[in-house]
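Researcher: Go.
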Amino acid sequence: MKMKLSVCLIFCIFAISGFSQDEPKSYTKVSQQMPDFSIKDLSGNNFRITDQKGKIILIYFWTTWCPYCKTELKFIEKEIWQKYKDSPDFVFLAIAREETTEQISSYKKANDFTFPMAADEKGDVFNLFGNRGVPRSYLVDTEGKIIAQTLGLDIEAIEERHKLLDTELKKLKKKTKRI
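Model: Structure:
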């Protein structure tokens, strides 16, 4: 009886202390306004969502220890950043969740990434979007609304996000040419 009570007590302590992790949750959804936040990138520039109005924005949350993030960041570097980096209508920022500036600076250099990165050391920005789970991405339209979001390495969703990004930038370019 004493053994059963001890096992039950240990189980209850783990349950109360949050030993079992919740499933990753998103606090945002497609069509809602992007949460406003401000963060400094590795170059010391202040990045704020509301300052980007009128542009197509891609925000990507990642960590240095996540193999899926590394795979997708390589894709982003090659297929998105190199293609759109010179577009005045496109903004991209890779935000490292609970990583230091030093950690991501060395990671960026080791992987030859050239796109802007920021360290979200305490996870304050990340916590506006979800409870846990990386990689996460958010594609935002010119009005500041989320038009696509992904969680995890979902190749189909990533391909759709990429097509949508391309479509939105082409629409914006046509609209600008008419004006």
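Model: The CA atoms of residues 4 and 10 lie 10 Å apart.
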